[in-house]
Specification:
The longest helix has 29 residues. The termini are far apart. The relative contact order is 0.09. The chain contains 9 helices and no strands. It has a domain of 101 residues: Rna Polymerase Sigma Factor, Chain: A. Helix 5 crosses helix 6. The chain has 202 residues and is an all-alpha fold.
Length: 202
């Protein structure tokens, strides 16, 4: 969707041009960082919602650029906005009860592939196992609140530290710890009850 041009002007200069209203300056920012933002969004929202979510991210970026103070890199600032936009996506969908058919993103599938596929050419049995695991993860993540879902993805799927996840979401580290503890208990209970149900059928 996006192509990054490493020869573009430096970020601070581009930001200044956008704020000054120079024509084409925001396009330069999109070309430089669009792929980076797209990669973040793809990890957290379903495929069919990626494009709309990216548009929302850059709308927020445009509105918030005057507040950017170069205290951190522009990429880090963009990652914070992108992550919180994805969080808001799930908050809105949980609120309206209009959950997508599947919340299994590309990141989830890659994680399952690594966890379950020991060989490149999987047998039909292995493919069936991957499909079942995907369905389990899908159900499990949808059982969590929007905030808990984002924390689990950031810490367990993307391997951010507690401090990094807290900064991306704008929460305290203590809040992240509490949500992770609560999520682990809920997921464990869900998967344990599922195993018992499967066992009773055999």
């Amino acid at each position: 969707m996006f192509k990054t041009n490493p020869n573009d002007q430096d970020d601070s200069h581009i930001v200044s041009q956008i704020i000054d209203g120079k024509e084409g300056a925001f396009d330069s920012l999109l070309q430089r960082h669009g792929g980076f933002v797209e990669a973040i969004v793809k990890k957290h929202v379903p495929f069919e919602s990626v494009e709309d979510t990216i548009q929302e991210v850059f709308l927020r970026v445009y509105r918030s650029l005057p507040t950017f103070r170069n205290e951190s890199s522009l990429r880090h600032w963009l990652s914070v906005i992108a992550t919180r936009t994805c969080y808001d996506y799930w908050r809105e969908h949980y609120k309206s009860k209009e959950l997508p058919i599947s919340s299994l993103t590309e990141q989830h599938q890659a994680w399952l592939d690594e966890a379950l596929a020991e060989e490149r050419d999987m047998s039909l049995q292995a493919k069936a196992l991957r499909k079942e695991a995907g369905e389990i993860l899908d159900i499990a993540l949808n059982s969590l609140s929007a905030g808990d879902k984002m924390v689990v993805e950031l810490v367990y799927l993307e391997e951010y530290s507690l401090k990094e996840a807290a900064k991306l979401l704008g929460w305290t580290v203590a809040n992240v710890k509490v949500r992770l503890f609560r999520s682990r208990k809920k997921l464990h209970k869900l998967l344990t009850s599922r195993d018992k149900d499967e066992g009773s059928k055999t």
